[in-house]
């Protein structure tokens, strides 16, 4: 799931072709590596949080839970389709406890 989300993100980047890369995919991987290195060497981002609203029970990816017209606060939510694995396994998570905030 992590690799899928990285590849998906990189597909929206305007990147220069790497003449030494064997293919466009590995050229994108090289760009991803460079971006990760710059982030690792950058300043801390104290406000960073993972999505805590929903998680796919199949692939484990975290997601936002977007409201739908037929949502009912009192009813248990039906699973939704996961953008990563395309299965109907995305479930709403319980709100985080005060201690984890």
Our measurement of the CA-to-CA distance between the termini, rounded to an integer number of angstroms, reads 25 Å
Overall 3D shape: extended
Number of strands: 3
Based on secondary structure, the structural category is alpha+beta
| Overall radius of gyration | 18 Å
| Range of helix content | 25-40%
Instruction: Report the total helices.
Output: 2
- H-E string: HHEEE
- pLDDT < 50 stretches: none
Query: Quick check: average pLDDT?
Result: 82
How big a fraction of the residues is strand?
Answer: 5-15%
Structural overview:
- By secondary structure, the protein is of the alpha+beta class.
- The chain is 27% helix and 8% strand.
- It is built from two helices and three strands.
- 6% of the residues are buried.
Write the layout of secondary structure elements.
Layout: H1 2-10, H2 24-41, E1 54-56, E2 62-63, E3 90-92
Antiparallel strand pairs: 1-2, 1-3
Give a short synopsis of this structure:
The protein has 101 residues and is an alpha+beta fold. It is built from two helices and three strands, in the order ααβββ.
Task: Kindly list the characteristics that best describe this protein.
3 strands, alpha+beta, three-stranded antiparallel beta sheet, 101 residues, 2 helices
């Amino acid at each position: 799931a992590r690799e899928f989300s990285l590849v998906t993100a990189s597909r929206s980047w305007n990147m220069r072709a790497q003449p030494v890369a064997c293919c466009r995919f590995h050229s994108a991987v090289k760009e991803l590596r460079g971006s990760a290195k710059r982030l690792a060497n950058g300043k801390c981002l104290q406000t960073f949080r993972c999505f805590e609203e929903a998680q796919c029970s199949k692939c484990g990816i975290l997601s936002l839970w977007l409201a739908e017209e037929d949502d009912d606060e009192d009813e248990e939510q039906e699973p939704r389709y996961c953008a990563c694995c395309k299965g109907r396994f995305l479930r709403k998570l319980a709100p985080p406890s005060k201690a984890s905030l």
